[in-house]
Amino acid sequence: MPYLILWLEKNEHLFLPHYKGIAQKNSRMKKAYISLFLLGVGALLFWSFKPPKQERPNIVFIMSDDHAYQAISAYSDKLLQTPNIDRIAKEGMLFTNACVTNSICAPSRAVILTGKHSHLNGKIDNYFPFDTTNVTFPQLLQANGYQTAMFGKLHFGNNPKGFDEFKILPDQGNYYNPDFITKRAGNVKLTGYVTDLITDMTLNWLKNERKKDKPFFLAYLHKAPHREWLPAERHYKEFIHRKFPEPPTLFDNYEGRGRASKEQEMNLLTHMNWAGDSKISPENMDKLGIKESHAYDKRNYNGTIGRMNEAQRKEWDAVYGKMNEEFIQNYSKMSQEDLMRWRYQRYMQDYLGCIASVDEGVGEVLDFLKENGLDKNTIVVYTSDQGFYLGEHGWFDKRFIFDESFKTPLLVKWPGVIQAGSRNSQMVQNLDFAQTFLEAAGIKPPGDMQGESLIPIFKGKGKNFRDAAYYHYYEYPSVHMVKRHYGIITEQYKLVHFYYDIDEWELYDRTNDKNEMKNVYHDPNYAVVRADLHKKLAKLRLKYKDSEALDKMYIEKYKALEAQGKIFK
Description:
The protein has 569 residues and is an alpha/beta fold. Helix content is 38%, strand content 13%.
């Protein structure tokens, strides 16, 4: 009834033209007249009156950097407990086969924002600039009445369009005392730990800057757990003493696979930095005669640890100094196998320690939403820009089409739409976020977006959502030396073409070879499967407007950057 009264008063010129002379002179008579009018037509209007549409949902998009799904306890509790991230799955949906189109940081973010594959949005690798003429979904949300904000890591090198407020890290950002690019205050340097600072910015915006009369899109984007891993003080003091189970493929020798797996530079023992990654100080490296894994090894250590203030550095040195002393004592007696195991543990201690802070921050944001009644009409997404290797195949980093890199965590809750505690195994992609958010907001997506809305899946429908996913990686030759490749992935199989300086095809049976250890491309038992996948791959390339001509074009552009010394190796 209050809606009806307000509506009648607003539209009195349509329904009560004859009372004007009296009612304008006497507001009480006006109200009485309206009341009498309601008595006469109230019943009719009550049944015909449509209440306002449900408010458009708020969207909180939480993304970490290089967060492996193996390091979320909702997927597996072998390594770490993440109770707050898990809450999203308990109250919503856990996607067990979510994946990316291009497993590397900045291109993945470009795909998310544009809803287009890398070859169309132009951000194929970390070196090519992001084309700011691309229309992004935050721009469309903003233009259609959403308040928008971004805090944390963007990684594009330019200010984001479509945001009313932002505070973002330049490039990769730093763990301790980081710099931020802000919309209103220019560049600032803050004291503290980056994960906590990003969380504080996010909470401050929710508490003090959010307009309560508008729906909002909030991008809460963590640097962690990106390399080089520096946990918060409260966590490294604990995690440095933990021991974690080794993956069964830690000592993989890559038999049964092609050159791409054998020629990569992502091995924990031979390619991970001793100073920057394993935290053996440059002085102790020199003392032991350990050579830098890369030219930037010691430099990265000095550039990250060196940002700490005196108090922070004192606490750090007290803990990591003891670790260095123990390593010096044992180094001469350690075999190559011993060193591999030691480096794996050092990696896990720092990597997982970084995630512990992320989980705490997520919990604070979820608590605020619940305590302020915002959780009921808010879509909350937790994901990462791609997967990550946690020692599987002896590797760290990402880039490959293989599962640990290709698959990404995805947990989504939306009360009233997504059934709590549900799971989904379909191949959804980061390509799908843009259309999903736009549909949730009632906005028609641009015709050149290439993803699919996840809302049918949220509602328990969408059984035939996607029968095959397309993947394409470009950044070669460069750091980690993962060769260029594209491929098709179905629930059962994975067909991959490695190209540029090689021309090799690989085929994996995802059902019977879950660790992807055996290339069966030339196995006659898979001849029919191989032929079928080639046909499907050709159709996918055509569907997504990718081609050999584009492959060659991007190679030539890459060579031009290489000639200018702009490619990092």
